[in-house]
Amino acid sequence: MKAAIIKNYAADIEISEVPKPVPDADSVLVQVHAASLNPIDNIVRAGHMKDIIPLSFPHVMGYDLSGVISKVGTNVSGLKPGDAVYARPNQTDAGSLAEFALVQADELALKPTGLSHAEAASIPLAGLTAWQALIDKAGLKAGQKILIHAGSGGVGTLAIQLAKHIGAHVATTTSASNADLVRSLGADEVIDYKTQTFEDVVSDYDVVLDMLGGDTMKRSFAVLKKGGILVSIKGQDGDNLAEKHGVRFAWFLMSPSGEQLRQLGVLIDKGIVKPVIDSSFELDEVSQAYDRLADGHAAGKIVVAIR
Ligand SMILES: NC(=O)c1ccc[n+]([C@@H]2O[C@H](COP(=O)([O-])OP(=O)(O)OC[C@H]3O[C@@H](n4cnc5c(N)ncnc54)[C@H](OP(=O)(O)O)[C@@H]3O)[C@@H](O)[C@H]2O)c1
């Protein structure tokens, strides 16, 4: 099958023929119709997470996918060839920039019926990250105030919509060119990170969702009320500052979940959460797609059509 692969850490991405994966008893083989890109793809490719996510080569790039089941393992029930599904497969199985990909049965959900495969492929990794940050880590409640950094990004666009659905008041940082986008997703307050200092605009917040780490994360502790929580998906070194400010800190790596994708799918089918697509590419253009990702200014998700 055709796939976007690397033959070593930091190597160029090549479109090449590789063997089609074979499902084990608990997994399914999906004919991929569309995939989407995530910043972690480039981090893993560069070898920066070798200790946590070691790769074997050739490595098929990509995590998110939407497609149609072509084979099911012998232990899999409730799914059949022909079912349209979407998923963020685990690190070992992953490889969505390919004509076929493996997914464990409990890591996928039926594709939301109102979405195209391209739209559905934009959801899993970013949507699960937003869900796990807001619901599992922060326990966000109606009436609470949340600051979501980089609200125009893949995770941010979905986190804003989820936080509004929960009933929170949402402030978000982005640049002026994305202000209308984040407002259309429900943001109550938009802070232009290029011209404004977010600490001057918001204070006494219950939750911060940080995707930037570094200085932004350090400064964010000051906008929380006592007992509030900063959830970071980027910076890991927040414990000391959290103690100093009398707040809580959590960093986490998202994990696959078919059940959470099913619940997200319900919100998508009701029109409560909508995909935001920055740009679309063909598999042969995958290097250009990764260049767009690397510039760090995508508004929503970058999608690659496979079929
Ligand atoms: N721990 C985990 O499990 C996990 C999971 C998913 C993602 N992540 C990490 O979270 C980060 C975000 O991921 P993503 O997919 O949302 O990225 P992304 O889509 O590439 O984010 C791009 C967006 O970030 C905005 N942005 C850039 N610099 C900013 C700043 N200083 N302040 C506010 N907004 C800024 C850009 O807006 P402008 O164009 O207006 O600048 C752009 O719209 C990445 O570092 C990723 O590796 C971690």
Key traits:
binds NADP nicotinamide-adenine-dinucleotide phosphate; Rossmann fold; Quinone Oxidoreductase, Chain A, domain 1; 307 residues; alpha/beta; 10 helices
What percentage of the residues does DSSP assign to strands (E)?
25-35%
How would you name the CATH homologous superfamily of the largest domain?
A: Medium-chain alcohol dehydrogenases, catalytic domain
Termini gap: 12 Å
**Count of spatially separate domains:** 2
- In the predicted model, the low-confidence regions spanning at least 5 consecutive residues are none
Coarse shape: globular
Strand elements, count: 16
- Class of the largest domain in CATH? Alpha Beta
CATH architecture verdict of the largest domain:
Alpha-Beta Complex
Instruction: Determine the structural class based on helices, strands and strand pairing.
Output: alpha/beta
- Overall helicity: 25-40%
Compute the average pLDDT.
Answer: 98
By CATH, the topology of the largest domain is Quinone Oxidoreductase, Chain A, domain 1
Radius of gyration: 19 Å
Question: Total number of helical segments?
Answer: 10
The major beta sheet can be summarized as: 7 strands, mixed
Series of secondary-structure elements, N-terminal to C-terminal: EEEHEEEEEHHEHEHEHEHEHEHEHE
Hetero groups bound? NADP nicotinamide-adenine-dinucleotide phosphate
